[in-house]
UniProtKB/TrEMBL annotation:
Organism for this UniProt entry: Rhizobium rosettiformans
InterPro entries per UniProt: DUF3750
Name of the protein: DUF3750 domain-containing protein
Pfam families: DUF3750 (PF12570)
Superkingdom to which the source organism belongs: Bacteria
């Protein structure tokens, strides 16, 4: 009984309390009344394609809308061939399974500004773009019906899949990217292609990730707590990574 009480206490302290604090802070801010009144235009974060002709890859994340915006974000991928145009890829729950260029590459998401997860330019981007596109094309849930908001597969499951398939991108999604820990096919484990990150998951509802990019993470009901060693910080549910 004491052991169970300790487990419950840890869950309440590590996962529930920060989430409630985040939700409380979220409630004090102004938010759009709905989808139609939210801002979806370019944030101006990226230069125009003509201003920056070199090849590039970007992964962005932004907090989402509604009450889930207190703890959850939405991620997308942007690629640009040398002297080419930006190509944005999102996995959404309506219309075409994987949307292409349905928003500006650096657009606000539900009035929330995009956060840059990773940026790669030049020759390295030229080398990796075909690998990124292959991972996008090979996504197991890229067909109609391949979306479930919770625990996945959702928009973050899609981007996390690409990051795992192309570890050369050198990034993981923020801790608030609910759905990123859902492994395709309901798999229990996944070892990234370079063998440097291991992921264990019980259908996206609970799991563990450890490695060079992930650090040490514990996932509980989509909430992530842990430690980032590469970019020193603590991963706090509802707040993302707090730098040290």
């Amino acid at each position: 009984m004491k052991f169970l009480l300790r487990i419950v206490s840890v869950i309440l302290l590590v996962f529930v309390l920060p989430t409630l604090v985040s939700a409380g802070l979220w409630a004090t801010r102004d938010h759009p009344d709905g989808w139609s009144s939210a801002r979806w235009s370019s944030s101006g974060l990226l230069p125009t394609a003509k201003e920056s002709p070199e090849a590039a890859i970007y992964v962005f994340s932004a907090m989402t809308g509604g009450l889930k915006g207190a703890i959850a974000s939405h991620a997308w991928i942007v690629t640009k061939e040398e002297n080419g145009e930006y190509q944005r890829y999102d996995k959404v729950g309506w219309g075409s399974p994987i949307r292409r260029n349905h928003r500006a590459p650096d657009a606000y998401w539900y009035s929330n500004p995009p956060r840059l997860v990773v940026e790669i330019k030049g020759e390295e981007a030229k080398r990796l773009i075909p690998m990124v596109e292959a991972a996008i094309a090979g996504y197991a849930y890229g067909k109609p019906g391949g979306y479930r908001i919770y625990p996945g597969p959702n928009s973050n499951t899609f981007v996390a899949h690409v990051l795992r398939e192309v570890p050369e991108l050198g990034a993981v999604l923020p801790a608030d990217a609910v759905g990123r820990d859902y492994l395709p096919g309901g798999a229990f484990y996944h070892l990234d292609k370079d063998g440097r990150d291991l992921h264990l998951s019980l259908g996206g509802l609970a799991g563990l990730s450890v490695g060079v990019r992930s650090g040490l993470e514990v996932n509980f009901l989509g909430l992530v707590a842990g430690v980032d060693f590469a970019r020193p910080g603590i991963k706090v549910p509802g707040f993302g990574t707090v730098g040290l």
